[in-house]
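Whiteboard transcription, Tuesday session. T.W. wrote the structure tokens on the left side:
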């Protein structure tokens, strides 16, 4: 069985001022919500909101200016903050 991944930008929810930068779809199902940040390492509350709304098993805030850490970016089912280098090192 072949797994298909697609990335889609998610539009802002204007009324509530909530958005995520990407929704990764795997086999036509939401799989990962991604919020990309330059240096803000705080956990955005709207990331958990979109994870619940979409049913995606993973939600990650990817922060470019954090140092690499040895960690599995997809090991948690709860929203987490991950350094950009860590996240990119784990892409297939």
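and on the right, the sequence the group agreed on:
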């Amino acid at each position: 069985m072949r797994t298909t991944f697609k990335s889609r930008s998610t539009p802002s929810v204007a009324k509530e001022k909530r958005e995520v930068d990407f929704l990764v779809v795997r086999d036509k199902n939401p799989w990962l919500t991604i919020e990309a940040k330059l240096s803000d390492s705080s956990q955005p509350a709207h990331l958990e909101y979109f994870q619940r709304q979409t049913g995606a098993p993973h939600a990650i805030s990817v922060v470019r200016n954090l140092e690499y850490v040895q960690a599995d970016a997809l090991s948690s089912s709860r929203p987490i903050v991950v350094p950009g280098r860590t996240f990119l090192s784990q892409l297939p």
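Someone added at the bottom: The longest strand covers residues 29-37.
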